[in-house]
């Protein structure tokens, strides 16, 4: 407890207590306002000051940066870049305006294709039981139920693609050496107006090229999808271990295709 004198000439006589201050959780200040005559003491209650918990003494004036978005998986990023190069070639150089996404392992293919060719037609071949649940805002959906032959029949009879015009089929989910995709020869016979087939595999070069037949390989044949369309021997960098290849089917006109309506 402390006493402090006041130097106010109109206040109490020298030596008389002028104020009384008590400190603690709250503060109470009592001031002598009696002047020359005694009177009641008036008190003023001061609310306590709430102080935040003490934290670090270091203040970052720049503020906290927003949390960055998660980086895409490296394998997905490489595959997306490969498909972007393939579709850019097909749209610009091959003049293709119809695409079939047959199990590509990365999303957004329709937007990718239309960035190179606005108005391109995109059809998705979905696994059995999934076709009805997929949103079709970026293209029509056909089920692969029944295997490649049945899916090809649906493509041929649905009218979703014009088989008298070039069609590009993208089957780029990598397959192992002992499980190549089926129905490639039937697909080749279906494309009356010509077209292309893209494949990807973890198998050696020759296995991938055999799976591509009877489509004719487009240069450079099979190459690591990181640097395709450059041949492997021209690149010293480390690849992904997944090969990509693009094959071509020439236009044959009408013919006697067994699925033609």
UniProtKB/TrEMBL annotation:
Keywords: Methyltransferase, Transferase. It comes from the Bacteria. Its EC number is 2.1.1.-. InterPro entries: SAM-dependent_MTases_sf, SAM_dep_MeTrfase_SAV2177_type. Residues 1-76 are annotated as: Disordered. The keyword Transferase applies. GO terms for molecular function: methyltransferase activity. Residues 1-18 have a biased composition (Low complexity). This is SAM-dependent methyltransferase. The lineage of its organism: Bacteria, Bacillati, Actinomycetota, Actinomycetes, Streptosporangiales.
